[in-house]
Write a structure and sequence with these properties.
Blueprint lengths: L4 E7 L4 H17 L5 E7 L11 E2 H9 L3 H17 L11 E2 L3 H11 L4 H14 L7 H10 L4 H6 L4 H16 L7 E4 L3 E4 L4 H14 L1
Parallel strand pairs: 1-2
Antiparallel strand pairs: 1-5, 3-4, 5-6
Helix pairs in contact: 1-9, 4-5, 4-8, 5-6
Length: 215
């Protein structure tokens, strides 16, 4: 039996292009009919590790971080909405949209991985944040996300105050940073080659076909 193609997706829960990149990768996998030949694992990356508990207004945050004007931001958001729509994902940018801290979400994604529910939880959190106007740094929202994907909420939430669980996420973040990853999504194949950004479906299909043929 052939080994599965291991795909590590280094990303953040509040990264719109990570959502689009994954949905395009998912479509490529589905169109090639290779769902049983790949294994996906999500790896932690925080776009804003120093984001305070109260979060920050998105417009202000993007202007501060990237220097983008309101007009540029609106244009970029429309571009994301259109890309999302093509993939069946809704981006709802509204006045008062806040960028939030995602560290605890990453702790729960590590927990979900142990039960084969990581992708489900990742998409649940991304949907909550981008489509349902929910604060994914709020523990009550995190609890509901765990329940929504059929995980033990009490057990999962207990890890948020567990020193070892928190250290595990920090050490994984550091590992990927030391591998030279500074932008997300970065999609790593068999820990040997990588593609960055939300590439078109056809690009993902070509990469997947080449890798599977080579193995």
């Amino acid at each position: 039996m052939k080994d599965k193609l291991k795909i590590d997706i280094v990303s953040d829960v509040v990264c719109p292009w990570c959502t689009i990149g994954y949905k395009r990768l998912e479509k490529a996998i589905s169109e090639l009919g290779i769902q049983d030949q790949v294994e996906i694992e999500w790896q932690p990356f925080e776009l804003n590790p120093n984001m305070p508990v109260e979060g920050q207004d998105l417009t202000e945050h993007i202007e501060e971080k990237y220097g983008s004007s309101l007009e540029q931001q609106k244009e970029s958001q429309q571009h994301m909405k259109d890309a999302g729509e093509d993939l069946g994902f809704a981006f709802d940018y509204f006045d008062g949209f806040k960028m939030v801290n995602t560290f605890e979400g990453h702790v729960l994604l590590e927990y979900a991985h142990k039960f084969g529910k990581q992708t489900e939880l990742k998409m649940r959190l991304m949907t909550a944040f981008f489509s349902e106007r929910q604060d994914v740094s709020d523990r009550s929202i995190l609890k509901q996300a765990l329940l929504d994907v059929g995980l033990n909420a009490e057990e999962g939430l207990a890890l948020l105050d567990n020193k070892e669980a928190r250290e595990e996420v920090k050490s994984k973040e550091l590992y990927w940073q030391q591998m030279g990853i500074s932008s997300v999504p970065t999609i790593v194949f068999n820990r040997k080659s990588a593609v960055t950004g939300a590439q078109p479906v056809d690009v993902f299909k070509n990469v997947l076909q080449e890798l599977l043929e080579a193995s």
